[in-house]
Amino acid sequence: MSQLDRQLFNEVMVPNYAPAEIIPVRGEGSRIWDQQGRDYLDLACGIAVTGLGHCHPLLVKAIAEQSQKLWHISNVMTNEPALKLAKRLTELTFAERVFFCNSGSEANEAAFKLARRWGNNQSPEKNEIISFYNGFHGRTLFTVSVGGQEKYTKGFEPLPGNITHLPYNDLETLADHISDKTCAVVLEPVQGEGGVTPATEAFLKGVRALCEKHHALMIFDEVQTGNGRSGALFAYMEMGVTPDILTTAKGLGGGFPVGAMLTTAKLAETLAFGTHGSTYGGNPLACAVAGAALEEIARPETLANVRARGVQLRQGLEQIGRRYGLFGEVRGLGLLLGAPLAEAWKGRAKDVVSAGLKQGVWLLVAGPDVLRFAPALNISEADLAEALRRLDAACAELAGSAGAAVA
């Protein structure tokens, strides 16, 4: 058998990804180890997925126990873990009904299909979906079309129609455009892929009011901001608005693939028997793990740690940014933070990530000009301090090499 190295990826995998040179083989808490046994502090969490860190004992226990009971039966029958998880989600949120799937894309696909079907039931012309530039809602053809980034749709035309993109945080433009033909307005409380840009409270409240005025649905994509990442169980809880539909995935399963669409009992009637489905959605294995993750995330102690470590991370990043002139004011919520690169460093976000890996810290980008940080919700103060120390060393090396090149 060929050696399991990065070169093998090029030989056997479709080239739609460009993974790092290192290959992680083990993880525990906020650390991962590569094939050579070197450790890395993880400030990426698999793009905000492993919210309780790697191999959390409660999740390991849940998957081990369920794996010996029942894995999959499809949705011709229900199962206990799915019922238990749905009940807890309705107890903890505004929602009265839940649809389970396998990913954020699928959760959004379900939400957009519900919105379109609901709108068409109101009027044959009520099917416009409004979303926002730099938004990201998934990679299916429908969800990538609703997302507001042309780079993800280029070459896949013709795209689904009657989708309008408007500037984010621009209430006046939305007010000028929204009409009684709009069936839904969809947004992320914090645009993750689009640069870690939070919505303003005034914008969100204005969107809510305009949706009510024009009898349109408000959809919150909380795939990335949900499940404790903002410092609340879901970001909407701190923003003074309640959506009609909420989508979630990523951190819901703590690393096991699972997604969900949450909505009201009345709206749920739109997706009557046979109108939508998912073969694996709500399977016992995924729901057992997600149930254990949800209980741990919802603990006040976990959410308090998110808020405390969010302050620590923000302050640490701002100090590093000032020290080396690499990035400016940090933005975001809780433990989803972005650091926009300074003008001289625009386009070099991946260079910072690569430098970080060399120093043993893993972070993300949100486009070419923004660094993105999404560590585990339960990361310790000591681990976060060490991660910042390693990032400082990476930035020092980058800044030093840039200075040497100029000289």
From TrEMBL:
This is Acetylornithine aminotransferase. Homodimer. Its cofactor is pyridoxal 5'-phosphate. Binds 1 pyridoxal phosphate per subunit. SUPFAM superfamilies: PLP-dependent transferases. It is found in: Cytoplasm. InterPro entries: Ac/SucOrn_transaminase_bac, AcOrn/SuccOrn_fam, Aminotrans_3, Aminotrans_3_PPA_site, Class-III_PLP-dep_AT, PyrdxlP-dep_Trfase, PyrdxlP-dep_Trfase_major, PyrdxlP-dep_Trfase_small. The keyword Cytoplasm applies. One of its GO terms (cellular component) is cytoplasm. Keywords: Amino-acid biosynthesis, Aminotransferase, Arginine biosynthesis, Cytoplasm, Pyridoxal phosphate, Transferase. One of its GO terms (biological process) is L-arginine biosynthetic process. The modification N6-(pyridoxal phosphate)lysine is found at residue 250. It catalyses: N(2)-acetyl-L-ornithine + 2-oxoglutarate = N-acetyl-L-glutamate 5-semialdehyde + L-glutamate. Belongs to the class-III pyridoxal-phosphate-dependent aminotransferase family. ArgD subfamily. Its EC number is 2.6.1.11. May also have succinyldiaminopimelate aminotransferase activity, thus carrying out the corresponding step in lysine biosynthesis.
